[in-house]
Amino acid sequence: MSGDAEGSRLSSAPPPPPDEGDHVRGKGAIVVIEYGDYECPYCARVDRMLAELPVRRVFRHFPVTSKHPRARVLAAAGEAAASQGRFWEMHDSLFGDQGHLDDPHLWRRARELELDLDRFEADRRSAAAMERIQRDFRSGIRAGVTTTPTLFVEGERFVGVPDAALLGRLGG
Amino acid sequence: MIAPGSKAPDFSLRDQEGKLISLRDLEGRTSVLVFYPLDFSPGCTDQLNIYQEVLEDFEAQGATLYGVSVDSAFCHKAFQEREGLTIPLLADFEPKGEVARAYGMYIDERGHNERGFVVIGPDLVVKHVHKSPTPLEIPGANLIFDALAA
């Protein structure tokens, strides 16, 4: 994961614009890129706030595992659901209830979303899921993300829960 | 603030295990002294947690990180354990903040450090100094990688 190969360096770079690899939803002229962590309560709150706004939302994983030990496992559950076309459903499920984040709870969530459970189990432990999460995480590091949630709106960085001024700008 | 190109101020501080770490121990490799206000305060937690996440990358760049605050070695040990940190933490405890003062990273009226970092070369010469505009602002890991690449 380290070394001098192009793309593996962590020097400063703006967050990449949304591409086909991103999780995107919502319609609106303004794009909000969110770096978040499913074990972070402030992220859950911000996610709910953004859902009410007329914006195009991009969610990128920023799991800080020394602080949130389950963060990477939960991000991988999101990616495993994504491979069955249900990323946002799992995303909403995780942020909707952060009190039940152990493996049996993930299996229950997967069943509720009618996912193929064997495939979900294999996918959430796959190298592809880990690479996908690392891609997000490292783009966040390069963009100077130091905590979650961090939002990027039209090139500007906003840390934490949006204030009234930002909400107004986003049409809230 | 100390200037890049100057000799790094000497120090000898205990780490979280009570082991003395001195400037001369840093000779022959690149080191980053990360100055932060206090163990267990929310901002600091984020700062060191983020650096911990990319520690392998710092190592790949040949850099060793050390955290420095005015907390005691025992406090550092508890902080490390709670946050899952392996970055060594140096106790600038007595005389309080003496090393931070020598590096221009102490806030007298608050009694704790600024938030910033100092890159020291293998020759013990200061290569780069970064101080946040306010202690609330956490320097991103990217800024340290920028400094190491410069």
Q: What is the CATH architecture assignment of chain A?
A: 3-Layer(aba) Sandwich
CATH architecture of chain B: 3-Layer(aba) Sandwich
CATH superfamily of chain A: Glutaredoxin
Q: Please count the helical segments of chain B.
A: 5
C-alpha-based Rg of chain A, rounded: 16 Å
Give, in order, the helices and strands of chain A.
Answer: EEHEHHHHHEEH
- Taking strands numbered 1, 2, ... along the chain, how are they ordered across the largest sheet of chain B? 5-4-3-8-9
Number of separate helices of chain A: 7
Largest sheet entry of chain A: 5 strands, mixed
Main attributes?
heterodimer; A: 172 residues; alpha+beta; Glutaredoxin; five-stranded mixed sheet; 42% helix; 13% strand; globular; B: 150 residues; alpha/beta; two-stranded antiparallel ribbon; 5 helices; 25% strand
Outline of the structure:
Chain A is of the alpha+beta class and 172 residues long.
SSE layout:
The complex is a heterodimer of chains A (172) and B (150).
Chain A: E1 23-25, E2 31-36, H1 41-51, E3 56-61, H2 71-82, H3 87-96, H4 103-112, H5 117-124, H6 127-142, E4 150-153, E5 156-159, H7 164-169
Parallel strand pairs in A: 2-3
Antiparallel strand pairs in A: 1-3, 2-4, 4-5
Helix pairs in contact in A: 2-3, 2-5, 2-6
Chain B: E1 12-14, E2 20-22, E3 30-35, H1 42-53, H2 55-60, E4 63-69, H3 73-83, E5 89-91, H4 98-102, E6 106-107, E7 112-113, E8 116-120, E9 126-131, H5 141-149
Parallel strand pairs in B: 3-4, 4-5
Antiparallel strand pairs in B: 1-2, 3-8, 6-7, 8-9
Q: Would you write up a description of this structure?
A:
The complex is a heterodimer of chains A (172) and B (150). Chain A is an alpha+beta fold. Chain A has a single domain (23-169), classed as 3-Layer(aba) Sandwich (Glutaredoxin). Chain A contains 7 helices and 5 strands; from the N terminus they run E-E-H-E-H-H-H-H-H-E-E-H. In chain A, helix 2 (71-82) packs antiparallel against helix 3, helix 2 (71-82) crosses helix 5 (117-124) and helix 2 (71-82) packs across helix 6. Chain A is globular. Residues 1-7 of chain A have low confidence and may be disordered. Chain B is of the alpha/beta class and 150 residues long. Chain B has one domain: 3-Layer(aba) Sandwich (Glutaredoxin). Chain B is built from 5 helices and 9 strands, in the order βββααβαβαββββα. Chain B has helices spanning 42-53, 55-60, 73-83, 98-102, 141-149, and strands at 12-14, 20-22, 30-35, 63-69, 89-91, 106-107, 112-113, 116-120, 126-131. In chain B, the strands form 3 sheets. Chain B has a 5-stranded mixed β-sheet. A two-stranded antiparallel sheet of chain B has the order 1-2. Chain B has a two-stranded antiparallel sheet with strand order 6-7. At the A-B interface, helix 6 of A face helix 1, helix 2 and helix 5 of B.
